[in-house]
Amino acid sequence: MSTILKVDDINVYYGSIHAIKGISFEVNEGEIVTLIGANGAGKSTTLKTVSGMMHSRTGSIEFLGEDITHTPSHNLVYKGLAHVPEGRRIFQQMTVLENLEMGAYLHKKPTREELKDIFTRFPRLQERRDQVAGTLSGGEQQMLAMGRALISHPKLLMLDEPSMGLAPILVGQIFAIIRELHQSGTTILLVEQNAKMALAVSDRAYVLETGTISMEGPAAELAADDRVRKAYLGA
């Protein structure tokens, strides 16, 4: 199993605040790896650093064997890294179809087959393909953000809090889609506050606490660990 992403000893600051403190982790091909932790633990900052929106003062980040530590964000898309940020960040004034076309800009326009694949995964998007994206429900906007990322054929899909703000039934739908993507071979790095759902779909996990990795291992083992259960699973 080849390593898709290798993060080694990164330290990230917001001004004088030391947000990420020397963390290291990796994601292997075909895995779902999740980062769990409380608000402010550094999960989203970690994804932003991997995708080039923030920068580490130390260490290195390798993607597909290439050092991308100082690679600008827009170049990482060409290399096969897709980031669905917290809050979805869809183009509110564009239609669903136009948003998907923006995701496919690397090859100018999505093919009929690519759109068919996205609409098969997200039937609700096909029903609303001509609807202005800003009028979609929260769950539909999350599906659109994921579809827009997938249409670029990423080697690694990074999802930041995909269930945030969604009703429980929609959370279940989003995680069912994540399971399907995993089964189809998509490699995923997941940041999620819903630790129970995240651990249930993941192969491995890392626990972040105040910018450091405090625990790591197979997701099933962490889900059964008393410390994780008390801190994150409400047990």
Key structural traits:
10 strands; 37% helix; 26% strand
Topology overview:
Elements: E1 3-14, E2 17-28, E3 32-36, H1 43-50, E4 60-63, E5 66-67, H2 73-79, E6 81-84, H3 96-103, H4 112-121, H5 123-127, H6 138-150, E7 156-160, H7 168-183, E8 188-191, H8 195-201, E9 204-209, E10 212-218, H9 219-224, H10 226-232
Helix pairs in contact: 3-6
Tell me what you see in this structure.
Strands 6-7-8-3-9-10 form a six-stranded mixed sheet, sandwiched between helices. A four-stranded antiparallel sheet has the order 2-1-4-5, with helices on one face. Helix content is 37%, strand content 26%. It is globular. It is built from ten helices and ten strands. α3 packs parallel to α6. The longest helix is centred in the last third of the chain and has 16 residues.
Short description:
The protein has 235 residues and is of the alpha/beta class. It has helices spanning 43-50, 73-79, 96-103, 112-121, 123-127, 138-150, 168-183, 195-201, 219-224, 226-232; strands spanning 3-14, 17-28, 32-36, 60-63, 66-67, 81-84, 156-160, 188-191, 204-209, 212-218.
What gross morphology would you assign?
globular
Computed CA radius of gyration, to the nearest angstrom: 17 Å
Oligomeric description of these chains: single chain
The major β-sheet equals: 6 strands, mixed
